[in-house]
Amino acid sequence: MRLILKIAKNELRNLFYTPVAWFTLIVFWVMCAFFYTHRLQRIGPRMYSTAKEYPYLPHVNPGTLTEGFITGPGSGMLSDVLQYLYLFIPLLTMGIISREFNAGTYRLLHSSPLRLRQLIIGKFLGATFFNLFFMVMLAAFMLTAAFDIKSIDYGLLVSASIGIFLLLSAYTAVSFFASSLTRYPIVAAVVSFTILISLNKIDALWQQYDFVRDLTYFLSLKGRTGRMLKGLITTRDIIYFMIIIVMFVSFALLVIKSSMQQTSRYLKVGRYLAVIILCLTAGYFSSRQNAIGYLDVSAGKTNSLHPKTQQRLQLLDGAPMEVTLYTNLLPPDPNRQYAFIGFPENMNAYLDLWEPYRRYKRDIRFKYVYYYALAPGDSLRYKTFPGKNLEQIAGLTARAMKIDASLFMGPEEIKKIIDPGVLGYERGMKITWKDRSVYIRYFPSKTGESIFNGVEATSEPPFNAAFQRLAGARMPHVGFVTGQLERSITKTGEREYAWLNELYPLGFDLDTLNLKTQNIPADITTLVLADPKQELSAGVEEKLKSYISRGGNMFILGEPGKQNVLNPLLQQLGVKLLPGQLVHPSFHNEPDVISCYETPFIYGLADEYRLSINRRLMKVTNYRIPSGDTSALVMNGVAGLSYNKDSGFNMAPLIMTIPEKSWQEMGKLVQDSVVPQFEPQRGDLKAHSYPVAIKLTRPFKGKEQRIVVTGDADFASPLRLEGNAYYVRGIFSWLDYNRNPAYTLFPFPRDNWLLMTPSWVKLERLTYVWVIPSLLLLLGIVLLVRRKRR
């Protein structure tokens, strides 16, 4: 070992006293300085001025700057540096072996007590030790970032450092091998670049062939450091780098040994094959899901499934879970995300999506079913391929996509297994556990995401609901009253509620109830009465009042002009839709567009991401009622509400109108001529502020009865969907006692702000981009000149 370290020390000295080494170090520093200070210049002054104007923003900014600014793949400084890192190592090591051959010193090994493997390992360690200079430079910027970023995530920095050092060592091993192949350093550098580029691109090769798919995917360098840059350290990635290092250093040893010994060609080939087989075998077994160990060092554990998701996965212990992916060769929208994720060439990418779940449930099995079918009325393919039948169209499409057409079932075959209509004639999955199955049309995505984006759900809450269904949990049953021309969940008009079917993947079972012919089932957990346009019959009204008397939860949505329809029912609650219609004349909007503000009560309804941000904002600021004409929330066509505090319910307003801006217009509202005026003589009424959405609670037989009433049914329609979807989901969550959706809010990031003044940003840029590189250049010149004189 002493000889190895001595050789490593000598090799490090030789590298340190070469112009190429100083050139790469200076260029590397300048590159890091540019990427780091460029981000500071772009973001730092803006954050400084924003914090001066809005002092509360540093407390509520949801972005993590350690990842987004330093380590984040595709966004941080280190990800930019990694794009060019492979250019430096070959320049350093291109002559590390060849100079021994050119100088003839390798012949001394025949008479030296030094063994060949000691020489190889010593030289490799010397080159690896030089990589520590690159790491010291990166550490300098990480240390600077620790002063620039509030509460920086040190776990991310450590994980990223480990990943980058392993990557540098792997690059060194590859370049070390390339140097052993030729006596010409430039050729060695070119060979190094070629191997490194191949290792980064090999994951895209031959992915359609089962035999080599896993092999080429495993050998790829791409993304190996990506997980570590995010704070997730896995044994698979660590072992991969070790295998690459051992394999290429062994290749270098075999190359040099072959040049010094006369051996048969078969023995030489056998040695290489032995190294390859041993390394790939170790890589294969270390990359099996059951053999992978994980360590999430991020501050918020955002690389791991949320504890709620882990708990729901534990419900499925005791039996394997099977995921069957159905992929249509002829989907309605071929450009849709993940349209062809199930095809053989994309199979590993599909499995990567599931890795966070496979980490906690190791016995997930995957099946793949390929079919072709067209949605009813879809004639586009027939126009594209005139004169061809469906089977011929599928064959031509498969040939164009370079896929074996025999993999795909026809429409009749697939209908024996599953109705393509359940999947929307697109890709979709069936998850099976024991004797239960759930169909889903969405895919997993990165962990740490708390936002639900509609039917194309990619965050954890919809998967939590699917796991609950598989475990046989009783899901909330929401009934939508019909029969009086209410808003419908089966219609897609701009005033209808079809979009609420997105509540199903979040864990709600939806149903329609015509109370003229049906009774309210006992398992209904929430009843929705949305803008009935006909007066409720005595029988319907009695059923609704009886449901309320039994402690049932309700969501009641009214509209101006429907006071006579809903007030007889609301009277039981102590609530009333006020007569007339609220108006709010404004320069920018029609008079029936009412500017409103959210009360603190609405923020506490659920752990919906947007509501949670506002909750935090409310804590760090003194909550103030808005007084201007504009607000984050507007409602269109609104009836005001009043409520009686002695009704037996505890009442709290969720949404109020901006004070002193609105009144009750009693006459007919004309919007296309003059601006309406407040006219008390015509019966117009004006209050300081009107509640337009309220919540009601009361204790009832050991539980809390919950009801929400709004004076605007468009509040939950597609007309206001973009701004109100999270309110509506929050209301349904509150009505279900916040059991569903299973929101997965992660800890709020503490490293969310830069602590810098604009003058400090300029000083850092001047120091790092100009002063320090100049000092490094001067130091290098002095050392090289002194070395030459000696």
Automatic annotation (TrEMBL):
Keywords linked to the UniProt accession: Membrane, Transmembrane, Transmembrane helix
Pfam families registered for this protein in UniProt = ABC2_membrane_2, ABC_transp_aux
Q: Which domain of life is it from?
A: Bacteria
Transmembrane domains' residue ranges: 12-36, 119-142, 154-174, 181-199, 238-257, 269-286, 766-785
The reply to whether Transmembrane figures as a keyword in the UniProt entry is: yes
Q: Where is the ABC-type uncharacterised transport system domain?
A: 476-717
- Check the record and name the PANTHER family matching this protein: ABC TRANSPORTER PERMEASE (PTHR43471), HYPOTHETICAL MEMBRANE PROTEIN, CONSERVED (PTHR43471:SF12)
Return the protein name. Gldg family protein
Q: Which organism is it from?
A: Niabella pedocola
Taxonomic classification, please? Bacteria, Pseudomonadati, Bacteroidota, Chitinophagia, Chitinophagales
